[in-house]
């Protein structure tokens, strides 16, 4: 009896044989061999996970700079940093610009806070001069918190309530505190860190 249409057949004792009865192997041996091929393929794929696909270029020493590998066929390299007014390349040791200020300290009420939906953060001032920040995503079901009042952060979706000083759950279905977010205070400006 032909089992797969390719001329192989199974004998009554579970052996897989070709049409002539030669080259018999048990089903277990056939399956083990196929499994081994799959494991080998899986391990081969894992050996290169996360490794670069092209070798790193050796550093240039002296002479003129070579064109980058992704330069256009005409030989011109993509535009890079240009020299500034002082003659040094832009960014040469300079600090990147600070992120835009979220708010001024004076904009955050003492004993309250303000929600910044676009940035996904709620900034609070539990005591004068103490600035805290937390994720604005409620830990219950992922709604954005809706208000800051009476020393608490409130999620209006299911009425979870969190403390403004530590993000801890005060009441409601949420079981985890709001994760803290890093902010810096630069003068009167509050910025995400």
At a glance:
The protein is of the alpha+beta class and 193 residues long.
Fold and architecture overview:
Helices cover 11% and strands 25% of the residues. Strands 8-9-10-11 form a four-stranded antiparallel beta sheet, with no helix packed on it. A three-stranded antiparallel beta sheet has the order 1-2-3. The protein is built from one helix and 13 strands. The chain is α+β, with helices and mostly antiparallel strands and 193 residues long.
Key features of this structure:
single chain, 193 residues, alpha+beta
Task: Report the sheet-strand fraction.
Answer: 25-35%
Percentage of residues in helical conformation:
10-25%
Unreliable segments of 5+ consecutive residues? 1-5, 46-89
Instruction: Tell me, rounded to a whole number, the average pLDDT.
Output: 73
Using only C-alpha atoms, the radius of gyration works out to 32 Å
Biggest β-sheet description: 4 strands, antiparallel
What's the topology here?
Elements: E1 9-10, E2 15-17, E3 25-26, H1 27-47, E4 103-104, E5 112-116, E6 121-127, E7 130-135, E8 147-149, E9 152-155, E10 160-163, E11 169-171, E12 183-186, E13 189-192
Antiparallel strand pairs: 1-2, 2-3, 4-13, 5-6, 6-7, 8-9, 9-10, 10-11, 12-13
């Amino acid at each position: 009896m032909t089992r797969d249409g390719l001329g192989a057949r199974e004998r009554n004792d579970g052996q897989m044989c070709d049409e002539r009865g030669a080259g018999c192997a048990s089903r277990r041996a056939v399956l083990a061999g196929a499994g081994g091929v799959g494991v080998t393929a899986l391990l081969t794929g894992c050996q290169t996970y996360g490794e670069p696909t092209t070798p790193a270029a050796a550093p240039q020493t002296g002479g003129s700079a070579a064109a980058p590998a992704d330069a256009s066929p005409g030989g011109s390299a993509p535009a890079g940093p240009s020299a500034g007014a002082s003659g040094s390349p832009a960014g040469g040791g300079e600090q990147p610009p600070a992120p835009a200020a979220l708010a001024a300290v004076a904009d955050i009420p003492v004993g309250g806070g303000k929600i910044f939906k676009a940035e996904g953060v709620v900034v609070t001032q539990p005591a004068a001069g103490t600035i805290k920040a937390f994720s604005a995503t409620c830990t219950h079901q992922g709604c954005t918190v809706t208000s800051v009042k009476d020393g608490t952060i409130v999620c209006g979706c299911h009425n979870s309530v969190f403390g403004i000083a530590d993000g801890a759950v005060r009441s409601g279905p949420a079981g985890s505190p709001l994760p803290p977010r890093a902010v810096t205070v630069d003068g009167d400006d509050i910025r995400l860190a």
